[in-house]
Design goal:
14 strands; six-stranded parallel β-sheet; binds uridine-5'-diphosphate-glucuronic acid; elongated; alpha/beta
Length: about 450
C-alpha cells in the first residue's frame, strides 16, 4: 500500500463535520461519497450549494466536485468503500446522555450491506461517549451474524476538533490528528487517508492559505477509548478555560482591573496559552454545552463526580445573564425600554444559534417587559424560523437597531460591528448606552462618541 494511493471513502452525515471532511478529502484527491437521508440537502449539494454557512466551503465544494458525489443511498456505494466514516448527529437527551440512535442505525446498515471479503475500515467521527466504537462493532457483528458471516473488520475512533466558522482551516491545518485503533492496519489506513494533511503535500486552496510557520501536525495513536475521551477532555477543558476567565472578569470589575489586560498577561505564559481566554457573555454552540453535559452524565454513570466541569457549566449559565445585570445597572428600569441586540449567532462566522447567549438574553428581556430589536448579519433567518412566536423587531442593519434604542447590547463578535459609525448611530438613540458583551470595541472611542460603555470585566 502506497501512502499516496487514493482511497474510496464513504461519509455518512453531511453536517458540519461530515460535509467539511468529505469536501476536504475530495480536494485532497480521494474518491468520496457523502451520504445523507435528507434528499433536499443532497439536491442542493449536488448543485454545488452548501447546506451550511461556512466561509470558503462552497468554493471548495465546487473545486472538488469531480471527486465528491452525494447520495441518499448508503448501501450502493458501501461495496467499494475502503473507509466508511460515521459523521451523523449525536443529539443530547433530556438527561444529558447522548442519543446514539443515528450512529447505531448507520452501523446496522453497514453490517447488512458490507462486503465481508473486503471489509471497509469503519471510522467514528461523530462525537460519541466512551465505548461507542465497541458498540458500533457489536451492532455490525449482530448484522453480520444474521447473514451467517464472521466479524472481520475494525472500528477506529477519529475525533474531530474543527470549529464552526473556521472548519476548513482546522481540517487542513490541524494541531493534531487523533486515531484510536486496535490494529496496525486500521492505523495505517487512517494515516494514508490523512497523508496529504500530515505531510502538507497539497496545494492550499486560495481561500484557506497555509499559515506561515505552520508545522506538521502530530498523529496521536491511542486506544479507541482514549480517543473518545480525548474529545470530551478537550472540549470540557476549553469550556472550563472560558468559564475561568469569565469568573475572573467579575472580580476584575469589582477591583477595577481590565480582564482583557489580565488575559493578555496570563496567556503569554506558554503553560497557559492565550487561546480561549476571551471573557464574554458565555459559551454556546452545538458542542461545548452538549459535550460538557454528556461527560458529566458519563461521570455520574461511573459514580465519578466532576466538580470542576460542573462549575464551568454553572458559571456559564450565570454568565449568559451578565448583559441583563448590566442593563439593570445602567438603565435602572428595563421594563418599557427599547433594547437593540447586535448578534444572534453563538459566535462570529456562523449562522448557528444553538445555545447562543442571545436566546437567553432576548427571552429574559421580553419577560421583563422590554421592547427588543435585533440584528445579525447572517443568523437572523435561523433565529426567526426557530423563535417565530417571539415578539421581537427584526432590523435590516445595525443602524436600524440603534434607532430609538435605550441601549445596545453586542452578543456576537461579528467583524462588521468593529466598523460601525458609532457617533452617527448614537445620535439616533434615546440613550447612548452600550453593553459590549464581547469586549470587542474601543472603549475610549465609544466614550468620545458620548456613549456610556460597559464591557465584561473591565
Ligand atoms: C468547539 C471546539 O473549539 C472545537 O475544537 C470542537 O471540534 C467543536 O467545539 C466540536 O466539538 O465540534 P465551536 O463550538 O465551533 O468549536 O466554537 P468555538 O470557537 O470553540 O467557540 C465556542 C463558544 O465559546 C462560542 O460561544 C464562543 O463565542 C465562546 N468563546 C470562545 C468565548 O467566549 N471565549 C473564547 O475565548 C473562545
Amino acid at each position: 500500500m502506497k501512502m499516496s494511493e487514493k482511497l474510496n471513502i464513504v461519509i455518512v452525515g453531511t453536517g458540519y463535520v461530515g460535509l467539511t471532511t468529505g469536501v476536504v478529502l475530495g480536494y485532497l484527491g480521494h474518491r468520496v461519497t457523502c451520504v445523507d437521508q435528507d434528499m433536499a440537502k443532497i439536491d442542493k449539494l449536488e448543485r454545488g450549494i452548501s447546506t451550511i454557512y461556512e466561509p470558503g466551503l462552497e468554493e471548495l465544494l465546487i473545486q472538488s466536485a469531480a471527486q465528491v458525489k452525494f447520495t441518499k443511498d448508503l448501501l450502493r456505494d458501501l461495496v467499494d468503500a475502503q473507509v466508511v466514516i460515521i459523521a451523523v448527529g449525536t443529539p443530547a437527551k433530556e438527561n444529558g446522555d447522548t442519543d446514539l440512535s443515528y450512529v447505531e442505525a448507520v452501523a446496522r446498515e453497514i453490517g447488512m450491506a458490507m462486503d465481508v471479503l473486503k471489509p471497509p475500515l469503519i471510522i467514528n467521527k461523530s462525537t460519541v461517549p466512551v465505548g461507542t466504537a465497541r458498540r458500533v462493532e457489536t451492532v455490525i457483528c449482530e448484522e453480520l451474524e444474521k447473514r451467517g458471516q464472521g466479524c472481520h473488520f475494525s472500528v477506529a475512533s477519529n475525533p474531530e476538533f474543527l470549529r464552526e466558522g473556521s472548519a476548513l482551516y482546522d481540517t487542513l491545518y490541524p494541531d493534531r490528528i487523533v486515531v484510536g485503533a486496535n490494529d496496525i492496519n486500521a492505523l495505517n489506513l487512517v494515516r494514508q487517508m490523512y497523508a496529504p494533511i500530515l505531510e502538507q503535500t497539497f496545494n492550499p486552496p486560495q481561500s484557506v492559505p497555509r499559515p506561515e510557520g505552520y508545522s506538521l501536525p502530530a498523529l496521536v495513536s491511542t486506544s479507541p477509548t482514549s480517543a473518545e475521551l480525548i474529545k470530551y477532555t478537550a472540549n470540557a477543558f476549553l469550556a472550563t478555560k472560558i468559564s475561568f476567565i469569565n469568573e475572573f472578569s467579575a472580580i476584575a470589575e469589582k477591583v477595577g482591573a481590565d480582564i482583557v489586560e489580565v488575559a493578555k498577561g496570563v496567556g503569554l505564559d506558554r503553560r497557559i496559552g492565550a487561546g480561549f481566554l476571551k471573557a464574554g457573555v458565555g459559551w454556546g454552540g452545538s458542542c461545548f454545552p452538549k459535550d460538557v453535559r454528556s461527560i458529566l452524565f458519563t461521570g455520574s454513570q461511573y459514580n465519578c463526580e466532576m466538580p470542576l466541569v460542573q462549575a464551568a457549566l454553572e458559571v456559564n449559565r450565570r454568565q449568559k445573564l451578565k448583559a441583563i445585570e448590566k442593563l439593570q445597572q445602567l438603565l435602572k428600569v428595563v421594563r418599557g425600554s427599547t433594547i437593540g441586540i447586535l448578534g444572534l449567532a453563538f459566535k462570529a462566522d456562523t449562522d448557528d444559534i444553538r445555545e447562543s447567549p442571545a436566546i437567553e438574553v432576548i427571552k429574559t428581556l421580553l419577560e421583563m417587559g422590554a421592547r427588543v430589536k435585533v440584528y445579525d448579519p447572517i443568523a437572523m433567518k435561523k433565529y426567526r424560523q426557530t423563535y417565530a412566536d417571539q415578539q421581537v423587531v427584526y432590523c435590516g442593519t445595525a443602524e436600524d437597531t440603534a434607532s430609538d434604542a435605550d441601549a445596545l447590547v453586542i452578543l456576537t463578535d461579528w467583524d462588521e460591528f468593529l466598523h460601525l459609525s458609532w457617533a452617527e448611530m448614537g445620535a439616533t438613540m434615546k440613550n447612548k448606552v452600550i453593553v459590549d458583551g464581547r469586549n470587542m470595541l474601543d472603549r475610549e472611542q465609544l466614550q468620545q462618541a458620548g456613549f456610556t460603555y460597559s464591557g465584561i470585566g473591565r
